[in-house]
Amino acid sequence: MSDSWDRGAKEEVTFAHLLAAAQVERIATAALSIVQCAAQEGTLRGLLTGSLDLLGREQSKAKDTLWELELLRILVHHKIDATLGEPDLSVQFSGSPVGFACKKIYSEGNVSKVLSNAVSQIEREGEFGIIALNLDDLLPANAILKAPTLSAMSSMLEDRNNFFLRTHERHLRKYLTPGRAISVLVSCAAIADVENAENRFMNTRQTTVWQIPGIPDAKAEKMNRFIAAMSSQYVAA
Questions:
Q1: What average pLDDT does the chain have?
Q2: What pLDDT score was predicted for residue 154?
Q3: In the predicted model, is pLDDT for residue 80 greater than 80?
Q4: How far is CA 117 from CA 102, 110, 128, in A?
Q5: DSSP 3-state of 147
Q6: How is 16-37 classified by DSSP, letter by letter?
Q7: Neighbours of 112 (CB within 10 A)
Q8: Per-residue DSSP letters for 73-112?
Q9: CA–CA separation, 237 vs 35, rounded Å?
Q10: Is-contact 57 106, C-beta < 8 A?
Q11: Is the CA virtual torsion 85, 86, 89, 92 positive or negative?
Q12: With contact defined as beta carbons under 8 Å apart, do 204 and 235 qualify?
């Protein structure tokens, strides 16, 4: 593909090439975060275990690891001190350790079990924690999203996140109310065709934070600071 582009033979670049390039870019960018990991060999091994077809819907250790690395990159992008560590990511924020349990959602019918496992992880570690859910595999398989503008694409993904939160709010309240897990971060990424963008085909992502109501004031203040840190739009995956 790069040879065709360099020679000016853009007609040789197929749609399949563009999709493959978008996936490689996303995986390679996330893999750069491995240098920040203490267990680099184990993390790389996880990234190579199973399918990394981002348009397919096969569950795999590789996709689980990719989500941890992508979230690590997102947090660092927002100038939050984060590393891979128990429960999945270890974050220092406002002077307190915050544990992130990172989970991929592969089925709407499995949300309750995923939340239960995530809460169990968090309750073994730290003062309080956040459940980080990735929704990519709930999007249609082998498809890309289309929107006229970047703003419209961000809104489309934000709507998807909010729909998930509304649909599963009873599960969120059930599992988060009694324990140390006080918030859920949901993130959805996709390959998109943005008609009015200079480069139409791109990786896009939207991340949304939901906080359980009624938490103690001290934790609420820290969560508000975290939400403020994450409030800027994050488009590039």
A1: 88
A2: 95
A3: yes
A4: 10, 11, 15
A5: strand
A6: HHHHHHHHHHHHHHHHGGGGG-
A7: 13
A8: HHHHHTT-EEEE-SSSEEEEETTEEEEEEEEE---GGGHH
A9: 18
A10: yes
A11: negative
A12: yes
